[in-house]
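Sharing a chain and its predicted structure for anyone who wants a worked example. Both blocks are below, sequence first, tokens second.
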Amino acid sequence: MNHQDFLRSLSKETRKKLTQRCDEPGLVHLALHLGLIVGFGLAIYLSLPGWQLLLIPQGIVIVFLFTLLHESVHQTPFRTRWLNNVTARVSGFLIFLPSTWFKYFHFAHHRFTQIPGKDPELATEKPKTMLSFVKHISGIPTWMGHFKTLGKNGMCDCSADFLPKTSEAPIVKEARLLLLAYALILCSVIYTGSAALFWIWIFPALLGQPFLRFYLLAEHGLCPTASNMFENTRTTFTNRIVLFVTWNMSYHTEHHTYPSVPFHKLPNLHEIMQRELIHTESGYKAFMGNYIASLTAK
């Protein structure tokens, strides 16, 4: 059975239950996620004993706002549309990734998952050597890519194949507003001489990015370039902490098969789909071991 046959096999009632959206689960999850960012940030700002140990956890919860951004562009964390839009924009702001541009990028990825020349995620080759792996995991190419995207968008360079002509105006406007906001923040930091934002936001995000790179590699890494979502995507079994931070996106085959299912319903979809899954992994550590074993020396 391929993913399309699976979807056709679902009853109308099952579809309705799986895709029903509501605000409460998303608001609770959001409050906890933002609560961790604020709590860790406050402890770092106040230099509480052991605050240095919180820099990596703070970075992880910040950079994994990417998974909230990802969900929000699908309009699934909340039933209320403006809540999805606001969380997408705020999440994108905090990780330097414009949400409007990312929406079109990500939707193209869903339409053409693992199809060379069409899936924009494949425009950046996954690491095949140990050196390229280390470079990728460092997160440096990712940050450079984010700022390159902001710069291009701000200069009206919206020529990517996945961007429709009608998207240019909102993408340019968003990029310019973001760049203005970052510039104002930088000027205020220079004027006040305060390093607070560096320690509670920028430096932790740099430390957290490698964890996001590890996580994202497992979604499609080592999967074939095929159109069947059961073949080109992986579900990784993990603990509740990782599931929380990633907004259940470790159920990635489930998400790609039925993107309109809200994050809190993905475990339910997994129960129905689990016998059809082809690529699964017992954990991110196990996947990384397999991935590293596939790398060449040069």
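Comments welcome. The CA atoms of residues 116 and 122 lie 6 Å apart.
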